[in-house]
Amino acid sequence: MAMVARLIAAARGSQNAYDMFDEAVGRLLGSNRTDARCADIIQRFGRMTAGELASRAGLSTGAVTTVIDRLEKAGIAQRVADPKDRRKVYVELTEFTRDMVHIIFEPMGIAFAEGMQGVSLEQIRAISEYLEFSERMSRGYAEILQRHAPLGESDQKDRLQRAKSFARDSVKFNKELVKSYGQEPSEPPVPGKPLE
What we know:
- A hairpin with a 7-residue loop joins strand 1 and strand 2.
- Helix 1 crosses helix 2, helix 2 crosses helix 4 and helix 3 packs across helix 4.
- Helices cover about 70% and strands about 5% of the residues.
- It is globular, with a radius of gyration of 19 Å.
- It folds into 2 domains: about 120 residues, Winged helix-like DNA-binding domain superfamily/Winged helix DNA-binding domain (Arc Repressor Mutant, subunit A), CATH 1.10.10; about 80 residues, no CATH class.
- It has a two-stranded antiparallel ribbon.
- It has about 200 residues and is mainly α.
- The termini are far apart.
């Protein structure tokens, strides 16, 4: 149990540190947290439609349109028409952002590669399985919580009831989640994807 507690504490600390880093990167790029998260999604998976971005970011189509407008205004992303179908529009990062990402993340990549030199393939597999499971868990809980979040003003009693409803709904999700431990991710691990 002590090792499990250590793992949970390390995961929470790591998440907080990533949040701090992401916020700092966003400030350097000239964006807020949500916009920076969307830019990260585009960087990870390559150019995509606004609908794809909304789905991956857990945003409404209206909200993601506003995000894309802000990303364009900041010079972080741009809309580009599909050369085969001019009605279809993709969002992609600008050359400025690609350069910034390379400059900012290259030292981290070097440090990570050097730090992982003594780690075995089995250890890397175990770490990857844990992180993939953790991502599925966080995404699933976020979706359930969003369904229970109040749309307007709400007092503490109402919020407590909503939290209890979330806990009940999460029981079924937990059963499916636990079965997924160790499964390969549904997304490719390599950043970017070709145009269809």
